[in-house]
Amino acid sequence: MNPLPSNVRIREVGPRDGFQNEPETIATADKVRLIDMLSSSGLKRVEITSFVRPDVIPQLSDAEEVLTGIQRRDGVAFSVLVPNERGLERALALRDRFDEISVFLSASETHNRKNVNRSIGESLAGLEQTLETAREAGLRREGVIATSFGCPYEGEVPLDRVLGIAERLAAAGCEEVGFGDTTGMANPRQVGEFFAAARERLDGVELTAHFHNTRGQGLANVLAALEQGVDSFESSFGELGGCPVPPGATGNVATEDVVSMLHEMGVETGVDLGALVEASRAAQRVLGRPLGSHVLRAGPVDWHGVQSE
Ligand code: ZN
Q: How far is the CA of 94 from the centre of ligand 1 (A)?
């Protein structure tokens, strides 16, 4: 077995992936406060919002206000998700407020069509232009591939197709490619085989794993990726977020659960787990319901603590 990476980068995606999936729109001031808590917890990367059409995702219609309201912090890279050229144009009006963009498409034709009403080929052609504009603006670029490990409509998604799309994204200027287990279908053996192949084919590209805990296998999948040398992950504080298919599905793997596991294994993240848990507690108060993360419920591991029972 390979030695585990000694350091791991985590991109917190809750403010985008999480907030956009809440049935009620969260007040802008609450978003700003929660993001400021996250960016001061030691996280080096935070995905702030998405420049999608407000009529499509009203939960994120305050993208400009949020980007303007949050505090910039040295050493913390802010990213925004942009669906297309139009979204990038909106984002570029606030160019000095963020560092990176993420573009996205799905590796499943059916899922991509349901999501953005385009074929995979049409999506790639559009994103190539968007990525070029972003490069000219000096932005770092990540391409995210949804349903990389399985599709709720099509079932198995061939590895070769996913990696082919990743190669196209890399050729179009993505420095980083994120692989999303959008509806939590991945298993650890599959993830291990996936990243072993991805590392061979995508030399020089930062590979990022984005797992959902839909079926409780999020952390096992993180470990399987880690064992293949993956040292970049996306996760969501409080286990917020997730895809509405299947209905009632839980969200992204929780950032505090990932951080806790990594720290217990001696892998550094730079994150202050206590500060991160405070952010999740604050999100619980804002949303008025308990969130799904394990560390939030149980508290961080305390090796020196005295159990009362
Ligand atoms: Zn997600």
A: 25
**Cα–ligand 1 centroid distance for 210 (angstroms):** 6
Strands 140-146 vs 45-50: parallel, antiparallel or unpaired: unpaired
Nearest to 47 by CA among 223, 215, 240: 240
The rounded Å distance from CA 241 to ligand 1 centre is 6
Would you give per-residue pLDDT tens digits along the chain (309 residues)? Answer: 678 999 999 999 999 999 998 888 899 999 999 999 999 999 999 999 999 999 989 999 999 999 999 999 999 999 999 999 999 999 999 999 999 999 999 999 999 999 999 999 999 999 999 999 999 999 999 999 999 999 999 999 999 999 999 999 999 999 999 999 998 999 999 999 999 999 999 999 999 999 999 999 999 999 999 999 999 999 999 999 876 555 566 789 999 999 999 999 999 999 999 999 999 999 999 999 899 899 999 999 988 876 655
| Token duo for residue 183 | 């509806």
Answer yes or no: are the C-beta atoms of 234 and 223 closer than 8 Å. Answer: no
Task: Point out the catalytic residue in the list 243, 253, 262, 291.
Answer: 243
Distance 188 CA to ligand 1 centre (A): 17
> Quick check: helix, strand or coil at residue 241?
coil
How many A from CA of 183 to the centre of ligand 1?
8
Would residue 174 show up in a list of annotated catalytic residues for this protein? no
- DSSP line for 12-48: E-IIIIIGGG-SSPPPHHHHHHHHHHHHTTT-SEEEE
Instruction: Copy the structure tokens of residue 57.
Output: 């995702």
Q: pTM score > 0.90 for this model?
A: yes
Domains of the chain listed by start with CATH number: 9-298 (3.20.20.70)
